[in-house]
């Protein structure tokens, strides 16, 4: 059945509202660091473009009407406000390399950037960390702020078909078939970094065996990630009524 204009407008409104809520959640969890960080969602009507918050805005104040849509060449094709150029180079590369990806998230979190300074990937120490078992990698290069698309393309190549990437001495990035899953995996990965850092500080930790880790990884589906996001979405709507007022009709 063909997508109607009404369906498209509704889907765009839903995606934009969830994106605004995601920025609020990042602020709520302390993931904002000045102007650093960016979350994007592909536009359903023009998939070569994506929505993002304007550069320099506090994540905790973002609403659907504040978002801007960015074209393939990095120009704002809808909305008003500047964009984070480093964010454009990273996200445009990921969205181009991964047509299956609708949502991507990156920020400079405390545990993410700490873990990224270590030459390691997440070990399967807990049920939660198994979500990233054999589905994340580490981009070992660090050459300062991402200033060109070539750098962004190298990041996208390192991500491959995974759901997450540790950026050396920088932070982490998640990508998924939906914004919901990308945001949840970002939140979960930050907490897994924290758990592993605590385990390292405490001493030895027992890893989950390879076969059990692989089984558990298969249970961390996109659908489960979307369910987990829905809980956070409900939370932020409850805590911040001004965001709930702009929620699109179901």
TrEMBL record:
Please state the span of the N-terminal signal peptide per the UniProt entry: none
Q: Where is the Class II aldolase/adducin N-terminal domain?
A: 17-197
Extract the SMART domains matched here: Aldolase_II
MF annotations from Gene Ontology: actin filament binding
Name any GO cellular component annotation.
cytoskeleton
Taxonomy, superkingdom: Bacteria
Family, per entry? Belongs to the aldolase class II family.
Query: What name does UniProt use for this protein?
Result: Class II aldolase/adducin N-terminal domain-containing protein
Q: Which organism encodes this protein?
A: Actinophytocola xinjiangensis
């Amino acid at each position: 059945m063909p997508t109607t204009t009404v369906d498209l407008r509704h889907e765009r409104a839903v995606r934009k509202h969830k994106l605004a809520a995601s920025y609020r959640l990042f602020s709520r969890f302390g993931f904002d660091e000045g102007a650093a960080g960016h979350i994007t969602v592909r536009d359903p009507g023009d998939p070569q473009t994506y929505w993002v918050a304007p550069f320099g805005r506090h994540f905790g104040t973002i609403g659907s009407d504040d978002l801007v849509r960015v074209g393939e060449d990095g120009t704002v094709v809808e909305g008003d406000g500047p964009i984070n150029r480093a964010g454009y180079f990273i996200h445009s590369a990921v969205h181009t390399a991964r047509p299956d990806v609708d949502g991507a998230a990156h920020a400079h979190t405390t545990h993410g950037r700490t873990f990224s300074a270590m030459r390691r990937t997440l070990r399967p120490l807990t049920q939660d960390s198994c979500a990233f078992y054999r589905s994340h990698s580490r981009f070992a290069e660090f050459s300062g702020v991402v200033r060109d698309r070539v750098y962004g393309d190298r990041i996208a190549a390192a991500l491959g078909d995974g759901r997450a990437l540790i950026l050396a001495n920088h932070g982490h990035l998640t990508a998924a078939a939906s914004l919901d899953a990308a945001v949840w995996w970002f939140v979960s990965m930050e907490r897994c970094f924290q758990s592993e850092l605590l385990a390292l500080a405490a001493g030895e930790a027992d890893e989950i065996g390879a076969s059990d880790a692989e089984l558990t990884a298969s249970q961390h589906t996109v659908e489960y990630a979307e369910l987990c996001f829905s809980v956070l979405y409900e939370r932020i709507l409850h805590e911040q009524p001004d965001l709930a007022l702009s929620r699109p009709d179901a």
